[in-house]
TrEMBL record:
It comes from the Archaea. Pfam families: Monooxy_af470-like (PF13826). It comes from Haloarchaeobius iranensis. InterPro entries: Dimeric_a/b-barrel (IPR011008), Monooxy_af470 (IPR025444). This is Heme-degrading monooxygenase HmoA. The lineage of its organism: Archaea, Methanobacteriati, Methanobacteriota, Stenosarchaea group, Halobacteria.
Amino acid sequence: MYLVTFRLDPGEYDAEFHELNDAIQVAAEETEGYLGKRTWHAPESEEVLVVYYWESLDALESFGADSDHKRAKRRWTEWYEAYEVTVTEVVEAYGSGFGDDADPPV
C-alpha cells in the first residue's frame, strides 16, 4: 500500500477550484486501486493534511495521468500559499480500536 500525503496551506478558493477539486476526487475514486482518504486540519494553523491511500504505485501513477489532476497541479499558486506531497510505501500497519475508522478508509 502507498500513502500520498498532501500538506497544504490554503489560500483563496474560487468556484473553479471547487469544481476542479470535485472532478479530481471523482477521478481518484474511479481509479482502480484507490482505497480512500483522510483529512486533518491543524488546530494551531490553517494547515491541512490529506492522506490518500493507494493499493499500488501503478494505481497512483494511473491517477497522476488524469487531465484534471495535471491541470490543477499547474495552477496550484492560484489556490494555495504552499504545498508539499510525500509518497510513502507502507511496510507494515497494525493496531486496534478504530473499528469503522480503521485505515485504509473504505
